[in-house]
Amino acid sequence: MMHPHLLRELRRHGIDGVPETMQPILQSVSALLDEVDRERELSAVARQELSRELELRFERMQQSEQRDRLLFAESPMAMFAVTRDDRCIIAWNRAAETTFGHTEQDALRQPLESLKLSGNEACWLSLMLAPNVPLPGAGGPIEAMMQTRDGRVLKGEIMFHAVVLQEQEAVIVHVRDVTVEHVSIRARTESEAHFRAFFDYAGIAIHVLSFDGVILEANPALQELLGFSPAEVVGRTAESLSPDEDVDAGRQLDRELRAGQRDSATIERRFFHKEGHIVWGQLTVSRVTLGGETRMIGMIQDITERKHMEGQLLKQAFQDDLTGLANRVLFRDRLHHALARRNLGDGRVAVLLLDLDGFKRVNDSLGHAAGDELLQIVGRRISGAVRTGETVARIGDDEFCVVIESIEMGEDPDVLAERLLTLLNMPMRISGREVVVGVSIGIAIADPDDDEEAVLRNADTAMYVAKASGKACVRRFDRSMHRDAMEWLELESDLRMGVEHHELFLEFQPLMRIDNGCVKGFEALIRWLHPTRGHVVPDVFMPMAEETGLIVPIGRWVLMEACMQAARWTHYAPEPPSISVNVAAKQLDSDTLIEDVHAALQASGLDPRRLILEITESNVMRTPELALAKLTALKSLGVKLGIDDFGIGYSSLSHLNYFPVDELKIDRSFVSRIAEGERAATFVRTIIVLAKSMNIEVVAEGIEEPFQHQFLHSVGCDFGQGYLYSRSLPANAVEDFVKYSTPVLPHLSLSRDEFA
Q: What is the pTM assigned to this prediction?
């Protein structure tokens, strides 16, 4: 095919045909023209591509310059540019403003010397900037002392690189403030030296762990505690030193430490001793940096003796001393959990409440030892009659309770009650005599909505109906037994009216110093004079006030009245007596308690140090964290805090240590049993020793006999309260008691060890 341009030229010259001899030449010319056309097309495409490439490069260059300018301006590191010829600053970023205190406007065109570099570094940098000295592309780092606008000296790490900026040879200088880092390195070095000295010579067991829990070092004190030499524990995991269940209990804290969610954690844990026995330790693990690496430091404080003492206290707190059965505290806990399981579908729950008939007669005629023996036999008979796993408890002098779970799968409660009635009516051999006592039994089947209080109340009601029916019989609770409830409602209404009509008043029972018989203070005790019923005892109306919520306004009034009275006692004695006020559970929960206490102190003008607020152990331990916050707030008012009825609740040293407690009041039930057996005396002695070790003063309540005072004096009890010293006094009798009464303290010819 001939090139079109060649055909046009041939036609223009009138050549229609081409001689055969010319064909090869014309074909060559046509091919050449085709090649020229292709080169022209390629050249045009190349020009277009070159044009686009140049445009893209220009655009990228502009973007790069914009990016460089943005990076310079927004860099977190202080940066500035200095010309080589006159060493003036021609660029200054925001971080430089922050580091040196000079704004960009102040810094531009200023000489480098305005930064006041120290001598050697200034000479070096000036030499590098000299126009006649070849400058490498980049240099540094060097460290230099530099001065800020406000005169503060900082240590900077300087790096630089050469550029052409604003058509001038310049150097961009990067400055990183290493002042804090420098100080930290020095501090860390000194800190590690101090740690090493502490580690080697501390009296507490310490071990250093890798991040994955392998022991890297152990100090000599760890060998003293656990028997293992450092060489025997290095390379082992810390977990291998404790039982698996203890390790599992601390896994969450361990995870939080490793994740950096906390810096330290403390847990009580058992440890294996080399000789095979268990050592209890309080383990504190801290996350630290040693030698630039993250480590765990474990410190173990020996608490074995404390745990042993707590175990004894817990046993006494939850077990009836005489029968070995569960006591009231443990019984209520077991009932609570049984009701919780019922709610999960594990069947109905029944409670049997047994009250012995004629026990007082046996006790009075044959003596307390015979009475104790009888109670032990009753406990064994009840325990032997119930299914394995059922809870049997002694909850009063001659009262026993049984919790029956899943009654659909076991014996009918009425059948069990009748069998118990038969067993307990059988003769018992006591002190060589055959004794017969009866028993009255009340049964309550828990309804779906009943809590432990409701079930116990219903069982108690049924038991009293059984007694009223002639004793030695069984009664199951039903709603017809609510006559007492109606009387309760009537009394509640009377109490509300009594609060409004000011029928409540206070009496004050002295608290005496056991060592010298002087008055230490008074406890405010509430009384109610009913217009028709006469004196209503607190045991009747105070539980009602607590349950109905009336305790909050009543408690507010008691606080105000007690503080007002105590403020009048300022001149009664060289050291004015203190005033103790009980705080009920609902008061402790109330949002107004802090305000109520503050208002009473303000209105009365009473020195806060003379006010002691008493909270029962069980009320504090219902919600420990919330209680701690409330007690801390009360403590900030300057008042003192006491734990009332100690020993009948949780009985733990760790609990006592958790709260800001100034005073501990041993419950009267333990004081009354001091002479009954070694366990009660040991319990009281132990409580006093533990309290003294924590600088907590101890008050014993319910002191009625001289030998009780004598024993408490011998074991170092601080204060006493009870009928031995004085009954509660009306307000107008307090002054005479303080001024003129000389309490007769018993000085009996008892040896110190008689009750020890």
A: 0.43
